[in-house]
Here is the input.
Amino acid sequence: MLKRPHILVVGSFMMDLIATTERAPGSGETVAGTGFRTASGGKGANQAVQCARLGAHVTMAGRVGDDAFGREALQSVRTAGVDLSRVTADPSAPTGVAHILVEDTPQGVQNRITIVPGANFTLTPADLAWMEDGVRAFDMVLLQFELPMDVVETAAGWAHAAGVPVMVNPAPAAPISDRLLACADYLSPNEHEAALLSGLPLRAGPAGVEAADLERVAAWFRARGVKELLVTLGENGAALAGTQGMLRVPCVPMERVADPTAAGDSFVGAFCTGLCAGLEREAALALASHTAALTVSRMGAQPSLPTLGEVQTLLRERGCRSVDPAALDPLAE
Here is the structure.
């Protein structure tokens, strides 16, 4: 019997400014776009919303600006049912923004993202002092790299000291200390971030990234304290390597990829929700794969994140054998 987990996300809020084009401009070049929209985003907020839409009780800690973007970002996360009592508004720094260029061509869809952290980077370790005792109320803490690194390390340290599992999503890629790695029960880079952080190659073979390369990278992280390495591999699915060996799950194909923005956040949020709810590793990976598949089929970050019911429908349609859609019903109670 699954339970509704309690998850803490210490992370970022962004307002996404999304332009769509048939061809990305070169240096000094101007091209005409085909569409524009805004959507609430930020890796932390995206992960919090995805966990909540799948049934978790979610609390988020972070900071926005005291401006229109901040109010809109908070409302989007609040509507998903996330507890925002640990979020504050900075009176002088603007809410973070992300400029997202989506290049939509007959060959596929890809994005280019530039972030301006704004108020996210005014969060300090002192703002998380409540975690020293309060973190024990949670089943897991999720962290990303759109906050100052000392804030991420402080949050991980408080959780680790209290025996609460820590998921670190090292994106955008940045140097990562041995102190932080030693606190990470789970580390979830994509294949490029995994290679960059470890300094080891992840070479492509006929079936995607070579298993031997994944094993070497996982061993490198395990030697520094990481218990489980979860590597997202784009169209080649994902791999989870840890003390119980390696599991690989394929990508769940969709008729159309509309926008890959937030796919990684969707995957991480779903995996953590499933794991904390009581699913086995393989079932949690299957839940994450189907959740992320729905996300990439839609435009925008938080608007694209699916609900539990939508994921259950896709699991049934695809005949997934790793997780019974009906077994997820307790998450909706």
Summary: Residues 271 and 288 are 5 Å apart (CA to CA). The longest strand covers residues 96-105.
